[in-house]
Amino acid sequence: MKRTLGSWVKRIGIWLARAAFVGVIGVLLLLALLWRERNQSLELPIPSGPFAVGRAIYDWTDDAKLDTLAPAQGTKRELLGLIWYPSAAGQSVAMDDYVPTHMRAPTEPARGVVRLLTGVMGLLTRDESKVHGHSIRDADVSPQQRSYPVVIMRAGASAGVLAYSTLAEDLASHGYVVVGFDAPYRTSVVVFPDGRVMRRTPENNPELCAEKEQAQQAGCMSKLMTAWTSDIAFVLDQLERLNRSDAPGKFTGRLDLTRVGVFGHSLGGATAAQFCHDDSRCKAGIDVDGQPFGSVVQASLHQLSLPKTSSAP
């Protein structure tokens, strides 16, 4: 018997309703799995070296130079410094949070569809309070050596330095003082100990520089690279101060600043290359997957290893 047009429409409607029901159930199941994954505890890989790892956090302000990338003229350069180091503390000491509470970026208020989308996107990232590292907050430096070599670590593009915690902890466990930092208006979000939140400005986005035509790209990257390399120089100045006289005495005389290495990832790697070209305090360094920019491209240098690079900064 031939089916009528009405029966076909009814049959198609039933199929669509079933498909929509299955789709809704699938979406709800996916959201539930994402929620469960987001809220599960995660422990970072255990450092492979013999030392326990300490971590200290500093707010460094430059009274001598202004921040050339700040949106407001006359803004002093200020960096959030994090130092991982060989520690004297035993394994029984409680570990610091992967991201300390005061450094977690507050959620910006949103309404309607924006709030819904923000909530859904939040399910794609791990709850920072559930991630656990292996660093001990403000522990004493290990007495096993008189001083330890220093490694400056620079994150890629707008990433925060805490994203490289596993690498920093592992290096520190092998007897290195690893110094990373976040820079306002370059790093995506910087939260200082006093609660101030500073976000990257669009004009300081290195990805946008890379998208420009070749003639414009050089000028755009030059401005960023000048600020980024200057930041590393300022951090080394601060380490020299700590080594001379650290108020708590933690790092006084404990930093071997005759053995300073600099490495970074992506644009941080390009910055490491240029800094080691410019500053003789750099004795060794590594550019990890960063396209070189600046005078180092033509002039080169001897103390830096430059692995194969990608086309992205």
Write a structural description:
With 313 residues, the protein is of the alpha/beta class. It is built from seven helices and twelve strands. The strands form three sheets. It has an eight-stranded mixed beta sheet. Strands 1-4 form a two-stranded parallel sheet. The protein has a two-stranded antiparallel ribbon with strand order 8-9. The radius of gyration is 24 Å and the shape is globular. The model is unreliable at 306-313 (pLDDT under 50).
Judging from the principal axes of the Cα atoms, what is the shape? globular
Major sheet summary line: 8 strands, mixed
Low-confidence stretches: 306-313
Q: Termini separation (Å)?
A: 68 Å
Number of domains: 1
Quote the average pLDDT.
85
**What would CATH call the homologous superfamily?**
Alpha/Beta hydrolase fold, catalytic domain
Radius of gyration: 24 Å
CATH topology title: Rossmann fold
Helix share, percent: 25-40%
